[in-house]
Structures are given as C-alpha cells and as structure tokens.
Amino acid sequence: MNNTEAKKLLEIKNLVVEKHSIDGSLKVLNVDDIVLNRGETLGIVGESGAGKTVLALTILGLLPSPPGKIVSGRIILDGVDLRQQNHSYMHKDIRGHKVAMIFQDPMSTLNPVFTVGTQLMNVIKKEGHISNKDAKLKAVELLSLVKLPDADTVFAKYPHQLSGGQRQRVIIALALACKAELIIADEPTRNLDVTIQASILLLFKELQQKIGLTVLFIANNLALVSAFCDNVIILRHGCIVERGCVKDVLINPQAEYTKLLIQSNKHNDSKKIFNNNEILLKVKGLRKYFPVEKAKQKGLFVKAVDGIDLNVKKGEIIGIVGESGCGKSTFVNTILCLHAPTAGKVYFNDEDIFSLSKNELRHVRKKIQIVFQDPYWSLDPRWLVRDIIAEPLRVHEHLTAANELYRVEELLTLVGLKPEDAFLYPHEFSGGERQRIAIARALAVNPELVVLDEPTSAIDVMSQSQILKLIESLRQSLGLTILLISHDLGVVSQLADRIMVMYLGKIVELGYTNDIFKEPLHPYTKALFNSIPRISVDGKGLQAIEGEIPSAVSPPSGCRFHPRCPYAITRCAGSEPVAVSLNGTHEVSCFLVNKLNPWQEETTNENA
Ligand code: SF4
User: Fold this and answer.
1) Residues 6 or more apart from 1 whose CB is under 8 A from it?
2) Sign of CA dihedral 197, 201, 202, 206
3) Ligand 1: centre distance to CA 522 (Å)
4) Partners of 483 in the beta sheet?
5) Which tens digit of pLDDT belongs to each residue from 137-196?
6) Residue 240's pLDDT band (boundaries 50, 70, 90)?
7) Given this model, what pLDDT does residue 343 score?
8) Coil, helix or strand for 119?
9) Ligand 1 atom nearest 524 alpha carbon
10) For a pocket test of ligand 1, which of 503, 562, 570, 580 has the largest count of ligand atoms closer than 8 A to its C-beta?
11) Do 368 and 430 contact (CB within 8 A), yes or no?
12) Is the peptide bond before 67 cis (omega within 30 degrees of 0)?
C-alpha cells in the first residue's frame, strides 16, 4: 500500500442512491468520488434536501430501505468495502466502534432513563475489559476533556438536567469513548445558541488538534465549515457542485451555487437610519416573574423580564437579541398579553393594553400578530393551506367563502407563493415556503405590529436570505412595525433599524444597528458578535463566551454579566450599572462605557 492509500480513511466511489415512491424513483445522491484522509476534517455543505444526511446514513448502513435504495457504488472504510458487509458486522464493528455519529438533537440521542455516567460507562466497558472503578474514572476524564465544568456532578445527572450545549458535549464524549476513528457530525450545532455553537465548534477544533480526530462535518452553512474544516464539498440536489480546500473555495468559488452560498452569508452593515418619530408601542418598567414550582425553591421567582423600557416607532424593525433564557420570548409574550405582567405598562397606539376588557383586548390582538420559529410545528399538518391562512380571518372578519378564498390567494401572492398553493398541505412545501405560509397567516388580518420569533432559525441559509428579503419588502409595502427576536446577530443586522441586546431579563445595550455593528460597546454585545461564525479563510475569529447564562431565579449580584465578563472590575459584583445614553440614541448599561480606551485602562487601574 503506498503512502496516499495509507492516509485514506474513507473513500466513496460512484455512489448512487434513489428514493422510491408511488410517483416513481428519484435520484437523491449521485457522488463520484469523496476521499477523507486520517486526521482531516471534511465539511459537506448544502441546503435541506441536498443529500447530506442520506450520505451519512448510507455510510453507516442505516439508510431506510424502502424508500431508499443504493443503486451502485463503493464505500471503503480503512480498506474494507462496507457495502459487502452484513448487518451484524456493521452493528458490531462499525457503528459506535470505528464510526460514531453525532446527530442534531442530542436529547433524542441520549437515553433519558439513564444517567450520563451510566451511558458513558456502558460504552467504555464495551470497548475493552475494564473494572467499574476504572470505567468511572475514564468517563469523568472524558467529561472533562469535552470541557464540562464539574465533571463529577455531570456524571450523576440525567440528560434532561443538562442544557442543550452540555448534552451535545456529552454526545461528543460518547463518540470519544467508543474510540471511533471517524466521527460523522450531522449539523451538531443546529439547535444551539450562537454562543454555545461557537464553543462546540471550538471544542471540535481543539479535539481535532489534540487527538487527531477525523471528522465528516455536515452543515447547511458555509460559515460553520470555514470555522474549522480543512476541505469542503458543496452538494446540491444530491450532486457535488464544487470541492476543494476551504480557503480556495472561499477565495475563488467556481460554481454559481457556491457564489450564492457565500453571498447569502454576507451581512448588510450599511443600513439607512430610520426616520419616523410616531410611537406605536411604549413599554414602561415591564417585569414578568414566574413563581418556582419546585418544593425546594418555594417562594422564589424566575425573573424572566426585569424592568424593561422601550419605545417602538411606527414602521420600525427592532431586533431583540440574546442567548436562550435571556427573556426575549417572555418579553414579547407579555406584550402579546399571553402572560399577565408582574409590573409595568404597555401602551399600543396610546392605549394601556393591560387595563383593557376582554373584548377590547381582542380588537388589539388583531393588530398584533406573531410568526413562530419553526414552520414545521406551527402549521397544522392536517389542514389545507387555505384553512391555515383563513383561520384568523374566521375569528376576526367573518367573510363569505368566496371573499375568504380571494383574500387567501391574495396573501399567498403577497408572500411569493402561487394562488393554487391554497389547496396543498404543509408537508408539500419546503421549510422556507412554510415560513412564507406562516407569514401570510399573520398578515391575514392587516396587523400593525408583527412579532417574528426566530423566523429563519429552522430553515437553511438560501431560504433564510429569501425570507429576510420578503420581510423587508413587506415592511416597505405594508408599513409594518416589527419586533424581530433572534439569537443570530447576522440575521438581525440585515433587517433591524435598532438592536436591543438582552441579558438575564434586562436590556444591556440599545441603539441603531449601524452604530452597534460599527462598535458594540457592552462586553456582552462584543462577545455575541465574536461568536457569529463568519466566512473566513483563516478559520480564525470565532470566540466563545465562557460559561453559560446563569439562572434567572438567583441572578448574580451587581452587573448580571459580571461572572462571565472579561473586563469585570471589583465594583461590578457590588452594584448594578444603570443605562448610560450616548448621543441620545445609544444606551449601554456598563460601568466602563465612558472610558476612551475603556476595557484595558479601567481593568488595569481598578484591579491593580
Ligand atoms: Fe463587565 Fe462590569 Fe461592564 Fe458588567 S459593568 S459588563 S461586569 S465591565
């Protein structure tokens, strides 16, 4: 065997996979040649339906058949042609041994009835004769290796007691426990916050350097791949449209589709300043506390929203950003009167909405609509699109059947779909198209304010940029005012006129998008910016925020960000910073905001 052959861990040749249905057969994968060398990280990028997951499942011998069928091709792992092997070999020697898979959703991968420690020890013991004591030591060592703080405590926990990011680290520890030579990671950070995503990507990168992991990294986003892969393959409709070293592909993309993918990752940082002083929504001192149900913490409250003041102008888009648990959704749900407020007032068109009668509130609700994050869950699969869009019309407007259908078709056209789509079911649409249907439903009753709750996080990059364009054009043509919730500052930068950054129930920074993008001032905003994966040829630039967001039941004293803030000074733990207004349009709650070279100087002086 020559040197080149010895380096190869996985080789795929002329692989063709079809999907059979009553409508006939469809080629879902047709790849000529993929080579993955030992110690290499290969990124596979493509939209939903490009064939990425089919490829991963085919390698593992897990392709559901029917409807899937491998028509031809070879999959050679370490010199062995996997297509020639029987189920027992694949089960005993390949899956969970030579090859480990990391799925999108760690909760469905972990067994909920066993502790993390038991699950890890089971895998370790399967890999070799080892005593319980040593298996436990090894399990704790692996939990530390994947940077879980207090590994001994995590060892004794059940999956539901961990956060999404912690669970994904446990899955990585499991993959390492089975000493897999190849790890297939299928969009492992898809459901995670941008900050947690950054820390998981950095962990992969570190492990790759430390123990020479070989990784097949599947992603729908070129920016993620550029953060740590060596080589990349761009898949479209099951075929390879471009391949090469990440740097070359990014600097000099050849395929039109690759150029489009790169373009859709670029952020617009030259927005026009929004000019309208008419206030539509005024929020004053809004608080929402939830009583804790657990017996041990009786009498305590989750302070999800803790004193928010905000004026939203007519026609404006406000981007609300922050990690999961920062109170973004509770804030808008309280405005939507889905939660009763603990304190504070909300005025919509100068009307105090918390003092309205049920009937009056119904009238206001018509004017405020919401589009949810996941169009796969928010549309009833048993209903025709026509009924889904007409639902709010039936509640609020009582039109004749003919007028109702006319309005539904008008709305479908408005969001870029066809009138005849009214007679299809949600499953017949892609993720992006479903989100258009959800937007059409929200617009049915001519709202003035629309809340978009993570409108693009469940759809792929190409559909994302189309949905963002649609939202901007609807704002222009209908004069909508929009509250846009997102943990992704990149999405917000393209749409929002102003950005409101939340941390543990409070606003830490509020200002024009241009200003915040040019120079984020609060350390938390800076950290959020640094966690956004950007397309970069050097794979650098990605930084994670240390630690996770603390519990809102007992938030840290003083500045709530101080345990994670790299610039914290003694004073930060003792007293809470109030919002400082800079040039009347930019507010920041941080003691160091007025310093000329704030971070360096103050940290050095006060801590000296
Ligand atoms: Fe960091 Fe202190 Fe500013 Fe809070 S007040 S963000 S801890 S420097």
Assistant:
1) none
2) positive
3) 8
4) 318, 451
5) 999 989 988 888 788 888 999 988 887 778 888 988 888 888 888 999 888 887 677 777
6) very high
7) 96
8) helix
9) 6
10) 562
11) no
12) yes
Given the structure tokens 């947690």, which residue do they identify? Answer: 196
Distance CA 518, CA 500 (A): 15
592 lines ligand 1 (CB under 6 A): yes
The sheet carrying 239-245 orders its strands as 99-102, 182-186, 214-219, 41-45, 231-236, 239-245
- Which residue, 234, 229, 225, is CA-closest to 253? 234
Cα separations in angstroms, 197 against 85, 224, 411: 36, 9, 36
- Which one, of 383, 389, 354, lies nearest residue 369 by Cα? 389
Dist. CA 597–CA 599, nearest whole Å: 6
Q: How many residues does the chain have?
A: 608
Contact between 69 and 150 under an 8 Å Cβ cutoff? The reply is: no
CB atoms within 10 A of CB 58: 24
The closest of 76, 468, 89 to 264, measured between CA atoms, is: 468
Prior bond of 149 cis (ω within 30°)? no
> Two tokens at 436?
């258009």
The whole-angstrom distance between residue 485's C-alpha and the CA centroid of its chain comes to 12
User: Phi then psi for 146, rounded to 5 degrees?
Assistant: -90, 15
The answer to whether 330 and 510 are in contact (CB under 8 A) is no
Residue nearest to atom 8 of ligand 1 (CA): 568
Q: How far is the CA of 249 from the centre of ligand 1 (A)?
A: 40
Residue type, 303: K
pTM attached to this predicted model: 0.79
- CA nearest ligand 1 atom 5, residue: 590
Ligand 1 pocket check for 442: Cβ under 6 Å: no
Q: How far is CA 384 from CA 419, 423, 426, 453, 459, in A?
A: 13, 6, 7, 23, 21
Q: Count other C-beta atoms under 10 Å from residue 298's C-beta.
A: 9
> Which pLDDT score, from 0 to 100, does residue 139 have?
92
DSSP-derived 3-state class of residue 266: coil
Element at 20 (helix H, strand E): strand 8-21
Tens digit of each residue's pLDDT (9 = 90 or more) over 51-67: 888 899 899 888 887 78
| C-alpha of residue 562 to centroid of ligand 1, in Å | 6
pLDDT of 316 higher than 90: yes
Tell me the CA end-to-end span of the chain in Å, nearest whole number: 62
Band of the pLDDT at 408, cuts 50, 70, 90? Answer: very high
Kind and range of the H or E run holding 152: helix 151-155
Per DSSP, the three-state class of 115 is coil
Q: Are 346 and 335 in contact (CB under 8 A)?
A: yes
Nearest to 483 by CA among 608, 308, 606, 607: 308
What residues contact residue 150 under an 8 Å CB cut-off, 6+ apart?
Answer: none
Residue listed under structure tokens 């001994």: 152
pLDDT at 269 exceeding the cut of 60: no
Q: What is the CA radius of gyration of the chain?
A: 26
508 lines ligand 1 (CB under 6 A): no
Look at the block and give the residue holding tokens 């000529």.
32
Does residue 545 line the site of ligand 1, with CB under 6 A? no
List the structure tokens of 85. Answer: 């092997």
d(CA 18, CA 381): 26
Residue 492 amino acid letter: V
- The dihedral through the CA atoms of 302, 593, 564, 512 has a sign that is positive
